[in-house]
Amino acid sequence: MSRVFCGIDWAEGHHDIALVGHDGEQLAKMRISDDSAGFRALLELLARHGDSPEEPIPVAIETPRGLLVARLRAAGRRVYAINPLAAARYRDRTSVSRAKSDAADARVLANILRTDGRAHRPLPVDSELARAIGVLARAHQDAIWDKGQIVNRLRSHLREYYPAALLAFHGTGNLGLDSAHARVVLTAAPTPATAARLTRSQLRTLLVKAGRLRRPVDEEVERLRGIFRADQLRQPDLVEQAMGRQASALLQQLDAACSSCDNLADATEAAFGSHPDAEIITSFPGLSVMSGARVLAEIGDDRSRFVDARALKAYAGAAPVTRASGRSRTVSARTVKNRRLSSVGYMWAFAALRSEGPRAHYDRRREGGERHTASLRNLFNKLLGCLYHCLQHHTPYDPATAFATTSDQFSRMR
């Protein structure tokens, strides 16, 4: 058990350090710069107060990210990321004046570990590869969200002056505004006037340049030509040209967003494919390489991170929350959760419905009166329990074991 505890109140340009002994006495305080010199000063301060590789001094800080946290973790120290709201409640325990300073906040963080260290868990000791997958998978998801925002802006803009473009490119895949065909055609014809002047050979050249189509090229050429040459409401000429310039700018942003999505997807798939847990994770129904990478990005590969499957389910938001007081007792969906894992979990459970075991489990919950979302959340809860077991025992998914009862029911239903 450590007899010295460290608290760090971090900021953009500097960090305040406080060391507290087991009896609550402040042993040292220091302000360090946010660079390598400041980090060396921190290590020297810790070493002077008994820090060693065998018994490293635990550190509390209000963020799980950043270079300082990364270097502390690389040095083998237990780093506790304390929620800022929780730290604020601890501050109120020792002062009612609502006074606040960076040095005092660092001391509060150190005292959190001293008095309630058992109530907090250190950051997981994930492998370097798992952390890299986490960076790539989250960046890919952010890029998809950014692309969706640009598509919505472009769609709203086109509706104001270019309704033919929305008729020509709608839906998903090769039909959506974010498809290569839509981006190539609209870049060449950003206004209704330029679109109406496109010849068959020009349209054919643009479509071939964009890549493979679901339908024959000549058929698509005639479809687009008919839409672009149909009678439409138009803005005044100068206004239409100005709005075309704005559409071209949005299309350039959309091209960059689509390129980022593709590059990050390739990097994520390559990194995930080299991880030893990839084969186990993708053995589950409903998990592709990309969704599997997102799952690994959020749960990591530190097997001691979750005490049991219930802890993993609570972290993902799949387990319900019970609130009981007196005669009142309510069970509701969990709102405090890892939202990225919860998001991929919904799609995972939905995609898993094509398999017999998950489908029978879902149908049984629906027949019991649950709504669609609640049934999918329960299925996600079930799949997470199976995933926890498989990762702990290094074994792939086995439908006969995971859904033995529900599979039998599904067979009888057929």
Overall geometry: globular
Q: Helix amount, in percent?
A: 55-70%
Helix/strand structural class: alpha/beta
Counting DSSP H or I runs of 4 or more residues, the number of helices is 19
Largest sheet: spatial strand order: 3-2-1-4-5
Q: How many angstroms does the end-to-end distance come to?
A: 59 Å
Please specify the SSE layout and strand pairing:
Layout: E1 4-10, E2 14-21, E3 26-33, H1 36-48, E4 59-61, H2 67-74, E5 79-81, H3 84-94, H4 102-116, H5 128-161, H6 163-168, H7 180-188, H8 192-196, H9 200-210, H10 217-228, H11 237-273, H12 278-282, H13 289-299, H14 309-316, E6 321-325, E7 328-332, H15 339-352, H16 356-367, H17 372-393, H18 399-402, H19 404-413
Parallel strand pairs: 1-4, 4-5
Antiparallel strand pairs: 1-2, 2-3, 6-7
Helix pairs in contact: 5-11, 5-13, 7-9, 9-10, 11-13, 13-15, 14-17, 15-17, 16-17, 16-19
General description of the model:
With about 425 residues, the protein is an alpha/beta fold. The chain folds into three domains: about 5-120, ATPase, nucleotide binding domain (Nucleotidyltransferase, domain 5, 2-Layer Sandwich); about 135-270; about 280-414, no CATH class. Helix content is about 60%, strand content about 10%. It is built from 19 helices and seven strands. The chain has a five-stranded mixed β-sheet. It has a two-stranded antiparallel sheet with strand order 6-7. Helix 7 (about 180-190) packs across helix 9 and helix 14 (about 310-315) crosses helix 17. The longest helix is centred in the middle third of the chain and has 37 residues, at about 235-275. Mean pLDDT is about 90; it is low at about 410-414.
